[in-house]
Amino acid sequence: MSQQALGQFLPMILLFAVFYFLIIRPQQKQQKAHQEMIDSLTKGDKIVTNGGLFAEVTKAEEDFIKIKLNDSTEVKLDKNYVARKID
């Protein structure tokens, strides 16, 4: 490969490297941390759903969790709809 061809591809390679380190890599870390949080949910944990509901986990299953919204309402929620855990 000649230096002229390398000179033409160098800006594109640098742009991809910047794009990877500023956008792709942090997003992958965030997804991994969110998945670990979802996998670690246990009975008694307080959560916020993507819809903005505050709830308490009553039972964790493989793909779903049962949550208590109030004293008389218990529903089943897909684990992917948990926004965050409240400490």
Number of strands: 5
What is the CATH domain class of the largest domain? Mainly Beta
Indicate the low-confidence ranges by residue numbers. none
Annotation field: number of helices: 1
Number of domains: 2
Oligomer: single chain
> Which fold name fills CATH's third level, the topology of the largest domain?
SH3 type barrels
Proper CATH architecture of the largest domain: Roll
Q: What helical percentage do the residues reach?
A: 40-55%
The description of the largest β-sheet is: 5 strands, antiparallel
**What are the secondary-structure elements, in order, as H or E?**
HEEEEE
> What is the overall silhouette?
rod-shaped
**Rounded to an integer, what's the Rg over CA atoms?**
21 Å
Overall mean confidence score, pLDDT: 93
Task: Give structural notes.
- With 87 residues, the chain is an alpha+beta fold.
- The chain has two domains: 1-40; 41-87, SH3 type barrels (Roll), CATH 2.30.30.
- It has one helix spanning 3-39; strands spanning 46-49, 54-60, 64-68, 74-78, 82-86.
- Strands 4-3-2-1-5 form a five-stranded antiparallel β-sheet, with helices on one face.
- It starts with a helix and ends with a strand.
- The model has no long low-confidence stretch (mean pLDDT 93).
